[in-house]
Design goal:
Elements: E1 2-3, E2 7-8, E3 15-16, E4 19-20, E5 22-23, H1 39-42, E6 43-45, E7 49-52, E8 56-66, E9 73-82, H2 84-93, E10 105-109, E11 123-127, E12 136-139, H3 145-152, H4 156-168
Parallel strand pairs: 5-9
Antiparallel strand pairs: 1-4, 2-3, 6-7, 7-8, 8-9, 9-10, 10-11, 11-12
Length: 171
Amino acid sequence: MSNKNGFQCSRCEQYHDELPLAYGPEAPAIYFSIPAEEVSERTMLSPDLCVIDQEHFFLCGNLELPIIDSDQLFSWDVWVSVSKENFKKTLDQWENPERDQQPPMFGLIATTLPTYPDSQNLKANIHPRAVGRKPFIELEPTDHPLAVEQREGIPLTRVQEIAELILHGGD
């Protein structure tokens, strides 16, 4: 997902043709701590699901932030830790055209997001969506900056700040 409008980058001073509106890691944070030689035997990873050691279960979803004065959304792809029972329920409903009618389930954020204080273990509700769409991740309403941004929205300047950090690194 990206914005058709580009931006003048304050870090490299170049003009970027597009302002991306979505980011996220390929796996939950714990996945990256597994030694490379053990990954294939200890994990199952797809773009939507992850199992580690047959005891840690994760779903990937969209944590969406409304962009102020816009009809667009900024989306973090985040991994959420769920119980084995909820993981199984998700798999059972995977191809069900009515899965978006299922009630939300509880999870804990299992992704470290740049520009925020520790985002791991934030409490969240996982709302299933139509087949082919990642679930909507709704954070518990707290004073964590990510939860505040999800409730109140972010200006386009914040989207650019995130893009610059991800494109060029740094704090």
